[in-house]
């Protein structure tokens, strides 16, 4: 039996599912989050509320745990780095610093000879006028974006004048590709050349928010292998410990591109809870806590639907689910538009 106490920074649905997986492995959890209503407090052993620069509460948190991990990548690098001086933070803060910044992230991927969309750093509006070549494109904030937040599609130079952009923030301009499909690959790395990898998952977004995920992804054998190989190269190069997700684009000519890397468990991997012997969450806990690596086995094909905003209501009211249906309610206090409230996985 393990006597490890794991600290988790961030108390949303990913923190909740990590805490549930930890409990199964007899790992105790302390969750630290800046939201007093954070859903993970329903699942962890101890909950501490504080801002991510609240040194007093962070010290309290750190003193109670053996190892620290996180459920989202936008924690200030300084915070993670300070914690890392006292307790092991996994994945390493230096990895998070690369991935937090879209430009550093894309430069890192390209240095590995792995394809991304074409991109350029932009600091002023006038710069974009000389970048015709990147249009139609999407202007994205270099940091802090998620679920399409901080993004502006730009079809032509004329359109630039119609939108109001705060250029005090850093941006990148990314050439739009003719998207055929999006997939993700989730990998949990334990040590040098030691990892467990899930098969590619096919994802459908609505309004830039993930709506559906399914396995198997309907892709050819080459893309199946290439996406897994690229995920392995990225995890090895980062000397990553824990679960990582690589999001990919496939264009109409069947070219594969890395879109972004998430240094954490990922929404598209929720179906691994029911479709595999070991979920992405359990694997993350196993890797960061140095527990046994168990060989992955797929149990079933599956599809997952994200329940966004008030889409959760009919599911909350439903009394019966079929034996192949698994409904998860994140127990968020308030229903908000565009907020992920729960999901349902169906084994198929
Ligand atoms: P976020 O950090 O908000 O998830 P992404 O860069 O993953 O941002 O973009 C969100 C979604 O927008 C993508 O999943 C994809 O559907 C679409 N998108 C983003 N960039 C491009 C692009 N260069 N070409 C085509 N579609 C894109
Ligand atoms: Mg994304």
Describe it.
The protein has 3 domains: 85 residues, Rossmann fold; 58 residues, ATP-grasp fold, A domain (Dna Ligase, domain 1, 2-Layer Sandwich), CATH 3.30.1490; 169 residues, ATP-grasp fold, B domain (D-amino Acid Aminotransferase, Chain A, domain 1, 2-Layer Sandwich), CATH 3.30.470.20. Strand 12 and strand 13 form a beta hairpin. By secondary structure, the chain is of the alpha+beta class. Helix 1 crosses helix 10 and helix 3 runs antiparallel to helix 4. The strands form 3 sheets. Strands 10, 11, 12, 13, 14, 15, 16, 17 and 18 form a 9-stranded antiparallel sheet that branches. It has a 5-stranded parallel sheet with strand order 3-2-1-4-5, sandwiched between helices. The radius of gyration is 20 Å and the shape is globular. The site of magnesium ion (MG) has 2 residues, from loops.
How would you summarize the topology of this molecule?
Blueprint (H helix, E strand, L loop, with lengths): L4 E5 L3 H12 L3 E6 L12 E4 L5 H9 L3 E4 L6 H10 L1 E2 L3 H8 L1 H10 L7 E4 L2 H5 L7 E5 L9 E4 L2 H4 L10 E5 L3 E13 L2 E4 L3 E6 L2 E7 L5 H17 L4 E10 L4 E7 L9 H4 L4 H9 L13 E7 L3 H6 L7 E5 L10 E8 L1
Parallel strand pairs: 1-2, 1-4, 2-3, 4-5
Antiparallel strand pairs: 6-9, 7-8, 7-9, 10-11, 10-12, 10-14, 12-13, 13-16, 14-15, 16-18, 17-18
Largest sheet: 9 strands, antiparallel
Ions, cofactors and other bound molecules: adenosine-5'-diphosphate, magnesium ion
Total individual domains: 3
CATH superfamily of the largest domain: ATP-grasp fold, B domain
What percentage of amino acids are in beta strands?
A: 25-35%
Q: What is the fold-level CATH name, i.e. the topology of the largest domain?
A: D-amino Acid Aminotransferase, Chain A, domain 1
Morphology: globular
Structural class: alpha+beta
Oligomer: single chain
Tally the beta strands. Answer: 18
Distance between the termini: 35 Å
Helix content: 25-40%
Q: How does CATH name the architecture of the largest domain?
A: 2-Layer Sandwich
Rg, please? 20 Å
- Return the string of H and E elements: EHEEHEHEHHEHEEHEEEEEHEEHHEHEE
Helix count equals: 11
Mean pLDDT: 95
What is the top-level CATH class of the largest domain?
Alpha Beta
């Amino acid at each position: 039996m393990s006597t490890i106490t794991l600290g988790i920074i961030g108390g949303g649905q990913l923190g909740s599912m990590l805490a549930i997986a930890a409990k199964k492995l007899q790992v105790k959890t302390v969750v630290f989050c800046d939201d007093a209503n954070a859903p993970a407090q329903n699942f962890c052993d101890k909950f501490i509320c504080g801002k991510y620069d609240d040194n007093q509460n962070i010290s309290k948190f750190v003193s109670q745990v053996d190892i620290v991990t996180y459920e989202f990548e936008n924690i200030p690098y300084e915070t993670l780095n300070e914690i890392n001086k006292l307790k092991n933070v996994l994945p390493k803060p230096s990895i998070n610093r690369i991935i937090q910044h879209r430009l550093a992230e894309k430069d890192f991927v390209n240095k590995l000879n792995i394809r991304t969309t074409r991109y350029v750093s932009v600091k002023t509006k006038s710069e974009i006028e000389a970048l015709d070549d990147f249009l139609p494109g999407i202007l994205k904030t270099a940091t802090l974006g998620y679920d399409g937040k901080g993004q502006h599609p730009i079809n032509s130079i004329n359109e630039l004048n119609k939108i109001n952009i705060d250029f005090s923030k850093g941006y990148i301009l990314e050439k739009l590709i003719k998207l055929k499909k999006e997939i993700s690959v989730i990998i949990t790395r334990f040590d040098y050349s030691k990892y467990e990898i899930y098969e590619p998952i096919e994802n459908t977004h609505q309004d830039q928010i993930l709506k559906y995920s399914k396995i198997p992804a309907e892709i050819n054998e080459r893309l199946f292998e290439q996406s897994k190989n690229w995920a392995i190269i990225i995890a090895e190069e980062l000397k990553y410990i824990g679960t990582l997700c690589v999001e990919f684009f496939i264009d109409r000519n069947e070219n594969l591109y890395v879109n972004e890397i998430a240094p954490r468990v990922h929404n598209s991997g929720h179906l691994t809870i029911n479709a595999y012997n070991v979920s992405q969450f359990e694997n993350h806990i196993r890797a960061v806590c140095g527990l046994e690596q168990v060989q992955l086995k797929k149990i079933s094909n599956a599809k997952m639907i994200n329940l966004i905003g008030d889409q959760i209501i009919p599911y909350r009211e439903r009394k019966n689910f079929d034996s192949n249906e698994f409904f998860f309610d994140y127990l968020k206090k308030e229903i908000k538009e565009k907020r992920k409230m729960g999901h349902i996985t169906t084994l198929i």
